[in-house]
Amino acid sequence: MNKYPSSGSISVGDQLPVMRKKANEAELFLYSAASFNPHRIHYDRGYAHHEGHHDTVVHGPLQGSWLTQFVTDWAGPKARLISIEWQNRASAFVDEEVQFSGTVVALDTLESIVELEIFERKADGTILMPAKALVRLEER
Asked: Parallel, antiparallel, or unpaired: how do β-strands 80-86 and 127-136 relate?
């Protein structure tokens, strides 16, 4: 049995396994450096407080990378991510666990293309990022 989905093994309404993430201070600092983002709210707690945040803010693009990882980990190495889009609705903060969940909302079995609805949420259920993705699954 293959651990990755195929168009014949999934149905509309299927839930993707939940993925959890938590960024620490070192990760936020390194992501700021790697992405050439000098905004101090992403690595300086005191400055983030000064700007009105209750803690150091996780980068939106880092969360977008996590969304992409969520989809590609589920789909497998032979699948192809066709498109992904998201909206930042609220902030995530350092050392705060977030969770990613998704649902199959459409399936083209002839082309092996699946449409996913995805959400990143805080532990209290607050939606941080709603997202949509199209994936061409491995054909078997």
From this structure: antiparallel
pTM: 0.92
DSSP category for residue 55 = S
As beta bridge partners, residue 104 has 116
**Structural domains of the chain ordered from first start:** 59-136 (3.10.129.10)
Residue 81 CA to residue 112 CA, distance in Å, equals 12
19-21 β-sheet, strand order: 19-21, 98-108, 113-122, 127-136, 80-86
Read off the pLDDT of each residue in 10-36 and give the average, rounded to a whole number. Answer: 95
Say whether pLDDT at 1 is over 60: no
Please tell me whether residue 34 adopts helix, strand or coil conformation. Answer: helix
